[in-house]
Amino acid sequence: MTEYALDLQEETDYARRWAFSRNPLYYDFDTVGGDCTNFVSQCIYAGGAVMNFTRDAGWYYFSLHDRAAAWTGVEYFYRFIITNEGAGPYGFQVSAADACPGDVIQLGNGSCNIIRSRIDHPILLHHIERFYII
To answer: What are phi and psi of 14, to 5 degrees?
Structure first.
């Protein structure tokens, strides 16, 4: 597995730039289930994460019809990050008490997942509805 440090400042700058508007390079998934995980993936990518081009199990985006489910799907994203041993971001679940700025927080259906990429190298930041900065 390749180790690399993500740039939290780049992620934050990207999130601030696009939180209330749309980056035209990415499809708007609001009408097909929500756009939060797409936005989270964009931020992680902006922070320096490399894409994983493994068909059906990777984390990548080229277009609406050429993307990994983990780029846009909440559960797929979670499974990819937690189990990834190849290219791309990876992480582990932490408790709410251990949550730090930069961790991804997924809320919904009575559950809460908090994901950290590695100690001292958080993978994300914030978004409006389902993901929050802490």
So the answer is: -65, -45
Write the burial class of residue 66 (CB in 10 Å: 0-12 exposed, 13-18 middle, 19+ buried).
exposed
Element (H, E) at 36: helix 36-46
Tens digit of each residue's pLDDT (9 = 90 or more) over 1-60 = 556 678 888 988 999 999 999 999 999 998 888 889 999 999 999 999 999 999 889 999
Q: Where are the beta strands (DSSP E) in the chain?
A: 61-63, 66-67, 92-93, 104-108, 111-116
pLDDT in tens, 73-94: 999 999 999 999 899 998 888 8
Report domain extents, the chain.
8-89
Q: Phi first, then psi: what are they for 53, rounded to 5°? A: -90, 15
Report residue 6 as tokens. 């993500």
